[in-house]
Amino acid sequence: MEKYENVSWIPQQELEDPFKKYLNSTEDYLTFVCGPQRSHLFLPVTVVYTLIFVVGVAGNLLVCLVILRHQTMKTPTNYYLFSLAISDLLVLLLGMPLEVYEMWRNYPFLFGPVGCYFKTALFETVCFASILSVTTVSVERYVAILHPFRAKLECTRRRALRVLGIIWVFSVLFSLPNTSLHGIKLHYFPNGSLVPGSATCAVIKPMWIYNFIIQATSFLFYILPMTVISVLYYLMGLRLKKDQTLEADKITANIQRPYRKSLTKMLFVLVLVFAICWTPFHIERLFFSFVEEWTESLAVVFNLIHVVSGVFFYLSSAVNPIIYNLLSRRFRAAFQSVISPSCKQWHPQHHPQGPPVQRNIFLTECHLMELTEEASPHFPCQLSISSSHLHTAHYTGQTT
């Protein structure tokens, strides 16, 4: 997460306190102007972060692996989920260790200007890439639900890869303004001499520019996208509810509806959790940008929000694989095939085919929706007998 000055000390810095002249100890003076070198919440937060790190890295690596290894998982929707997993891995592997180190040793910042730029750019980029990926997958699902024939023609894997390339380039470019405002900030004694070990990675340009960028990006890359996503899922919900009331073509409806609803449900939960986890992060940024005169009470509130937002920010990078495992039988089966590769592969030819009419309907739906969910995945340890004719039809449809 983005590192702020310790605002609990800002009011003291703004005071012309005569006592400042008598702080001759370097350690005391650094504590006076920068706050404690080690956070008093270092131990409990580190324990929570370690748990999130282990679960998040293992889960997101598993998501990437199953999408890369299994051809049936290489769908447009899953490509966007793959992008989310990469974003989460970058945060967990590069961002979290650096933040834990800064909680343990707040200053001096040891990685120089390049390290400061990299840290700021990393967090800004993954923030933008994550919300844009979530927005794009929501738009794709909206098109698939309300305009299925158009989805078949437009929502292809090649198009998904192009869109993801644009998203990441776009995210890097939009991270540059905030990154350019940061740098190494040094502190000085009242007599003008440099305080040893006082280097911190912080905003070094005018704060009004930083505040404007934070407010603009929070609107463009959180408030606006989440509003659009909310409208899209509301419209999808209306459409799915309307479909339940239709009685015509019952065979097609009975085959299509469960798969379409289950995937939409999984993505809806994904978006909901994403919104909950990222709300404290943007509240913290906006809080900091709108406060003009800091008081001790405001500093206490901000520091509390900072801790909460940090936990939820990293939690969002670990929770997605858990959602996939709980709500997606296809992902669950794929995870099992990677974790337990010794299980025997299921061969669909062992199951009898169903009536040609049902088979053709199901094939049409599979190709039309390019489902990533519930369409009877073909991984080891996955077997179903009650609807074997549908399983066989699906397998044939994806291999032709």
TrEMBL record:
Full protein name: Neuromedin U receptor 2
Keyword Cell cycle carried by entry: no
Pfam entry (one): NmU-R2_C_term
Superkingdom of the source species: Eukaryota
Membrane topology: Multi-pass membrane protein
Role this protein plays: Receptor for the neuromedin-U and neuromedin-S neuropeptides.
Similarity annotation: Belongs to the G-protein coupled receptor 1 family.
InterPro entries linked: GPCR_Rhodpsn, GPCR_Rhodpsn_7TM, NeuromedU_rcpt, NeuromedU_rcpt_2, NMU-R2_C
Locations listed in the record: Cell membrane
Domain G-protein coupled receptors family 1 profile: 59-324
Gene this chain is encoded by: NMUR2
GO molecular function: GTP binding; intracellularly calcium-gated chloride channel activity; neuromedin U binding; neuromedin U receptor activity
UniProt record, GO biological process: arachidonate secretion; grooming behavior; phospholipase C-activating G protein-coupled receptor signaling pathway; reduction of food intake in response to dietary excess; response to pain
Broad class of the protein's primary localization: membrane
Membrane spanning stretches: 47-68, 80-101, 121-139, 160-177, 212-235, 266-283, 303-327
GO cellular component terms listed in the entry, alphabetical order: plasma membrane
Keywords: Cell membrane, Disulfide bond, G-protein coupled receptor, Glycoprotein, Membrane, Receptor, Transducer, Transmembrane, Transmembrane helix
Organism: Myotis lucifugus
PANTHER family xrefs: G-PROTEIN COUPLED RECEPTOR, NEUROMEDIN-U RECEPTOR 2
